[in-house]
Amino acid sequence: MDFNYTPEEVRFRQDLRQWLENALPQGWGETVFEPEDEDDRAMFRLDWERKLHSGGWSGINWPKEYGGRGATLIERAIFAEEMARVRAPEGLNIIGHNLAGTTILRHGSEAQKKRFLPKIISSEEVWCQGFSEPNAGSDLASVRTRAERRGDKFIVNGQKIWTSYAQYSQWCFALVRTDPDAPKHRGLSFLLIDMSSPGISIRPLRQISGESEFNETFFDDVEVPVENIVGDINDGWRIAMTTLAYERGPEDALGRQIRFKQELDKLVETAETSSRGGGALIDDPIVRQKLARSITEVEIMRLNAVRTFSKYLNGEERGPDASVIKLYWSHAAQNMYESAMDILGPTAPIAAPDPLSAAGGRFQLSYLQSKAFTIYSGSSEIQRNIIGERMLGLPR
Amino acid sequence: MNFGFNEEQKSLGETVAQQLADFPALTAPDPVAGHDLEAWTALAGLGLFSLIIPEEHGGVGLPLVDIALAIEALGAGLAPPIVASTLIAADVIARHGSDALKAQFLSRIAAGELRIAIATLEAGQGYDTDHVQTVFGGGGVTGTKILVADARQADAFLVLVRCDGRPALALIQRAARGVSLRPHADIDPSSGLCELVLDAAAVAGDALISHKQPDEAVSRLLDVAATVYAGMEIGIAARMLETAVDYARTRVQFGQPIGAFQAIKHRCADMAVAVEAGRSAAYYAFWAVSEDAPDRSRASSMAKAYCGEVARDACNEAIQIHGGMGFTWELGLHRFLRRAKVLEHGFGNHAWHYERVIAATLAGGRPASDVQRDAA
Description:
A: about 400 residues, Butyryl-Coa Dehydrogenase, subunit A, domain 1, Butyryl-CoA Dehydrogenase, subunit A, domain 3, 3 domains, 4-stranded mixed β-sheet, B: Butyryl-CoA Dehydrogenase, subunit A, domain 3, globular
């Protein structure tokens, strides 16, 4: 075990840091922030992603032949740390990078890799995920969206739900039913669908945070060329499991940890600069205990991810450890936002843009958003089933 | 960077676990105070005590992180506390002791011939070291320490004292004049907790661990002890998880193993997540302490605070999952519950360590990775 960095890793960090100095807007994170408007913010994030790509900082640990940087997972972790340090914006094409790309890299044909990966890395093409349906949530294998083979096309009919960023996406990967007579896990296929195809319509869903990041997506006789199937027909469940392992895995967790750490730093700063009843808020022992616990848990999120990276580097296979990682960060982050509201005390309900809201009202919004953490990409109950059955060997 | 253990480190952990399993009395339902110096002898036979002793004093000179998994095994196997306290004391003496003190003690520790108990707490004081009342002066050491684990098995005591108005550490021989012990009645008799009464206890001229920088020696003791205790706590937690899962797989109610019920399965899953999170914290602390990293104190406090809670919860859950049997004396889960409670309150409980975490954070104590990258 060694947390010291090799000369190559140090060099990687230096290069990245140097690049970042010029890449971020002047006053970023101090006086300059992301746009308030949801659509403006999405475009701002897309611009940032494209800027990262132009500097060669996209697809960090993907092979060079598809436009990646060919770096190690440890360098990927360094990348995350540096992004956290400068409080870099998030990206928009998260699903493209973390899910579509990783799945195509693992299971796609050579033609698919060449066609899709470079444009994911460059964020020319943004992706969304078509897995859940109104009647297929935790029971994902019961999806009903049909894809019927007709000549060299699949004809897709059905409805997907919770399709985040569908309104900004050029592509969607979807789990669809290709054999309604087979047992439910064995009649599914994994399709790549062009979002500009005729017959696709999108209806935004309003979330408890008031935002509309996700949507209902409807498919009405949508034609998909047969070459856009990943893997074999009716082998989609196995491929979807890969997607889910990445969705829950350490790369994803590390990206999120960046944001949680930034917000936690802001919370500490808020406690330091706020007064209550004539004293500094930070001197309240209960506040200190809550902060320390979240500081510890957010640090453990990072350590969990890095420890899992090391396991992969040392030759271990990806497995239910992704569920361990996801279950941990989702609950720890929810606890953090719950603590933030506790710490704010009487002003906790005051949100943006009220001038009395703490830290620009960010904690109220994040608190509401955090309710999704333990539901999406497999609810906590599903993660516990996976851990219980596949890691601990408990009976089904 | 690599956050994984190598084959030697893993194999040492397994060997220590197997060795302890040869002494079933260690985890049997009836706790015995100060039993099993045979276990000590067996571990000494493995060379455990020589591993972290510098080579010039007859040791192997390994960093503490190399024995992290062995320490986890000490926790899981309910090893006599004197094993851990001797390892902790050895680290502090090797780092901060005078040459004379090192020459006198380290080779004997390496050979497994010297057992050291640690005495920091006093009645009426918290975990803070600043208010220590036991005085080290010209006439010897005077004061009363409490909760000294395995004191009756010790050949010497590493004692937190006040010297020239500052907290410091002194080594006092068990056989010295003015040293007496009174066993506590306590929740975990196998910890052998005692009151240590020092009545002008005689000390050698070089008994003070670090004359020049006593505060650094005290700080090192707290950090190493917190880390080692966190390691043992996670060992107990992992064993409780394993025990609970084994039971859930085999115990049948309503016609099926209870582990098939989500009410049980999900509890086990949550325990598993907590154990892995605790391991991340503990293993990082072992590394930070070994490297004397800038965030050593913060990392060890995070580990001690967090792993203490994990161990406590794991013991509680294991008993609950075992139902009525869990509450019986004969099943013996109480042994782990009792030991975990002693460890949780040794060298600072979670509230005390969380306070250290926030204080270090506000003072700018950052993870070593931050410091390294800023130096980059």
